[in-house]
Design a protein that fits this description.
The chain is α+β, with helices and mostly antiparallel strands and 87 residues long. The protein has a single domain, classed as 3-Layer(aba) Sandwich (Rossmann fold). 24% of the residues lie in helices and 24% in strands. The protein has a four-stranded mixed sheet with strand order 1-2-4-3, with no helix packed on it. The longest helix has 14 residues.
Length: 87
């Protein structure tokens, strides 16, 4: 059973529709450019975990600070798809 898959690919072109958890360590500016793809391609219930950098005006479900960094947890929902998917 394969639970994890690592890919070396163009993040804007990668086929991510089967993912149930996506982890990111990208600058906020890149997160914002990637956000529409994440919300378009991922099913509701999929979790997105971002290390250090947030997703702009999309408020995280949870955030935890440790030392100098913060980890943000987002869950894809139909509301998030409608509100943030087109930006």
């Amino acid at each position: 059973m394969k639970l994890v898959r690592f890919e070396e690919n163009d993040l804007f072109e990668a086929d991510i529709h089967e993912a149930t958890v996506v982890t990111l360590f990208l600058l906020s500016s890149v997160n914002l450019k990637l956000r529409p793809k994440l919300l378009k391609d991922l099913e509701p219930g999929t979790r997105i975990v971002s290390n250090t950098f947030d997703m702009g005006d999309w408020k995280p479900d949870k955030q935890v600070s440790m030392d100098w960094r913060t980890v943000y947890l987002y869950t894809v929902t139909e509301q998030a798809k409608a509100e943030y998917g087109g930006k």
